[in-house]
Amino acid sequence: MITVSTHVLDIERGLPASGLVVTLSRATKALASATTDDDGRIAQLANSLQPGTYLLTFDIATYLNSQGRAAPFLQRVSLEVAMHDDRHYHVPLLLSAYACTTYRGS
Are 94 and 68 in contact, with CB atoms under 8 Å apart? Predict the structure, then answer.
């Protein structure tokens, strides 16, 4: 069974990115959407996924604007991720208004 979680950290503020909407899609169909909690986490965005390629989209502009901050560069970050092993995938995102990075977490 493939499951997905995420953790978003706002490295510009040095805090978890709470209240950020993340959507999981496959092809053009949205499968799940959730908002990060106070610790910047979504413990289970989806479960029981079939092997394949998925798109995780992080709504950066809405998150920044909700805090009264401008979104001068990043609007959304979309990560196309291949999930073929029957296991848990944790996809963290480190972000600022001008940059982001990700990695395969544990």
Answer: no
CA distance 60 to 92: 14
Contact 86, 78 (CB under 8 A): no
Domains of the chain by range and CATH? 2-102 (2.60.40.180)
The strand ranges marked E within the chain are 2-10, 15-16, 21-26, 29-35, 41-49, 52-58, 77-83, 88-90, 93-95, 100-102
Flag whether the pTM goes above 0.90. Answer: yes
Q: Which of 79, 69, 85 is nearest to 102 (CA)?
A: 79
Tell me the per-residue pLDDT of 82-93, one tens digit each, with 9 for 90 and over.
999 889 999 999
CB 36 within 8 A of CB 18: yes
